[in-house]
Write a structure and sequence with these properties.
This protein is of the alpha/beta class. The protein has 2 domains: 17-185, Rossmann fold; 190-386, Up-down Bundle (Dehydroquinate synthase-like, alpha domain), CATH 1.20.1090. It contains 15 helices and 9 strands. It has a 6-stranded parallel beta sheet, with helices on both faces. Strand 7 (155-160) and strand 8 (165-170) form a beta hairpin. The protein is globular. Bound molecules: fe (ii) ion (FE2). Residues 200, 203-204, 268, 282 line the site of fe (ii) ion. Fe (ii) ion binds next to helix 7.
Length: 387
Amino acid sequence: MDNVTSNLQHCKFEVPEIIFGRGLLSQIGSCARRLGGHKVFLVSDQGLFHAGWVDKVMHSLMEAGLSFIYYDQITCNPKDVEIEEGAREYFRHGADVIVGLGGGSAMDAAKGIAILVSNGGRIRDYKGPDKIIRPLPPLVLCPTTCGTGSDVSQFAVISDTELRCKMTIMSRCVAPDISLTDPDTLETLPDEFVCTTATDALSHAMEAFFSVASTSLTDVHAIKAMRLLTKSLVNAVRERTPDDLENLSRASLHAGMAFSNSLLGIVHALAHPIGGLYDANHGSVNAILLPEVLRYDIPVVTEKLPELAWGLGHTGKGETSSSGEMVQDTVETLLDAIGAPRSLRSIGVVREDIPDLARKALKDVCIVTSPREADEQDLIRILEKAF
Ligand SMILES: [Fe+2]
């Protein structure tokens, strides 16, 4: 029995219904209606409102005969208080289906609101794995960036404003009923966010591929995401060609399906406390951490390196040692080519906070599937190198 077959015997792979294609945002009304909704709680943000996409969604909802409430009181790295206010608004208006339109912040906020309206309590009650008891209301998520993966994932990441840390909520219940991606929405995404969200997708794909919970099914999606990113990331950032932007959307979707089922690793375990403490852009933090975490992980993932090197566009069989160098070089070259930030200092991290960040990362659910175990000192060393 080969490795692929034995791997499949222990696979669990879950994804929502997926709808993907340019111009398909107009289908959102019919999606919400067939889930049984009458009054939609639409969660989005002001940037998308000004870009015209919220209006397009509202039009689609009206065409489907649905009424709606619009909620945009969310910020980058959505906060527990915003989620809890959203849940009160949902009840106040008697909504019965939730649509999240936006990047990770809007979609995770939509998930958080869905958790509270069906389960009650405070959002921090659901921190960690499998704390959600009751099923969520119908949920449709539409990503408008190219990185988060929240539209297919079993995670919601919410900032705890008292502890100043991001909490990861993990449950099969959190995956939406429908993930609808319209790559046209990337046309209005500012250059900076094309870059940072795509580097988030790159981190998702790499961490999913190296995760101890990876399987042949997740590897297929992780590798596909990496091939698309290698092919189109630089062009999409520099030229913004529709085909390259669509490839980034597709890469985000594949990476999302991979990491939702295989989980992540040290990059995200560290990115969560950093994001919570400094309200830092998630993709930027990942771009800074990924090269250092790769350097740490590569010695223990040698068997997978040739396949990863192929995923990153290198042809030929190659030796394991040279594959490791190829992977490291390709990732760093890609990040440099798109002007990604390369030091924690440059995004406002304070050196004195490093030990506390390392301690918090050890409690993050993403650390569990890291291919290489790490203690507090290991994490401090990674953060120091990335500083
Ligand atoms: Fe991420």
